[in-house]
Write a structure and sequence with these properties.
The complex is a heterodimer of chains A (165) and B (81). Chain A has strands at 3-10, 17-21, 29-38, 46-53, 58-60, 64-69, 73-78, 83-86, 95-101, 110-118, 126-134, 143-147, 158-164. Chain A is mainly beta and 165 residues long. Chain A has one domain (3-164): Sandwich (Jelly Rolls), CATH 2.60.120. The radius of gyration of chain A is 15 Å and the shape is globular. Chain B has one domain (6-79). Classes of the chains: A mainly beta (165), B alpha+beta (81). At the A-B interface, strand 1 and strand 2 of A face strand 1 and helix 1 of B.
């Protein structure tokens, strides 16, 4: 089993989406590692993120999950459990996640495991994990990361894509 | 007028160093983004309402148990506080 860095992107300007396209199909699994923050300034201290498969038709958003939230306490259920800190909450904090996608180059459904959290100094903190899947029908050729609240992913956010053989 | 939002596309078919492009969102992408944000706001409001109801139910339960004569320690043992 080999673990190969495909690409790392560090934003030099705020962006609505970060998209990896033409993902090489010669691996078995994919791993995304993210340290991101968003431009939001109101409401909770974090936003939810989505990771779209091959455009907009499928996305990771819900699945069996557990979380601990400094505002709501411990919970579980189906929900969107990838987060990004609002930069207004703490200029030094980045939310961190690892997203593991199995069998991405096959046309069967691809299982996804997410672990991570959003910690910031002034407002809500949250940590959790989720398991879900993309529906079958196509291999994953692109992944698009976006903020659900129409905030931008801000400068300095880093996303790395790894391929596992 | 606000700047048009952009996306960063990393085309992995290209050589390293030539992969990153910054592209303005199309009108369709902007509309889709706004629709998804509205849906997310609704889901967040629903979640907050559910959490508030759970907190109220818990407070009501503790008050009822107190009125039945349970101590604070006994109640905490039951509700996991």
């Amino acid at each position: 089993m080999a673990y190969e860095l495909v690409e790392t992107i560090e934003l030099t300007a705020d962006a609505a989406y970060i998209e990896f396209s033409s993902i090489p199909q010669d691996g078995k699994d994919l791993v995304l590692r993210m340290a991101v923050r968003n431009s939001g300034s109101s409401g909770l201290g974090y936003d939810n993120l989505r990771i779209d498969k091959n455009g907009t038709t499928q996305y990771v958003t819900t699945g069996p999950s557990m979380y601990g939230d400094s505002t709501y306490g411990i919970g579980s259920g189906n929900g969107s459990y990838i987060w990004s800190n609002k930069e207004s909450g703490d200029l030094y904090a980045w939310s961190n996640h690892e997203v593991y996608i199995s069998n991405y180059a096959t046309t069967g459904h691809q299982h996804v495991g997410v672990v991570g959290g959003a910690n910031n100094w002034y407002t809500d903190n949250i940590v959790g994990f989720m398991t879900t899947h993309y529906s079958s029908g196509s291999a994953i050729t692109s992944l698009r990361i976006r903020d659900l609240s129409s905030d931008n992913i801000v400068t300095g956010s880093v996303v790395s894509l790894y391929k596992i053989y | 007028m606000a700047d048009t939002p952009v996306k960063v596309v990393v085309d992995l078919s290209k050589p390293k160093g030539e992969r990153e492009s910054i592209i303005p969102l199309t009108a369709e992408e902007i509309a889709e983004r706004e629709a998804m944000a509205a849906q997310a706001a609704e889901e967040q409001a629903q979640r907050e309402a559910e959490e508030a109801q759970k907190a109220q139910d818990k407070a009501d339960a503790i008050a009822t148990l107190t009125s039945l004569g349970l101590t604070e320690a006994q109640i905490n043992a039951l509700v996991g506080a």
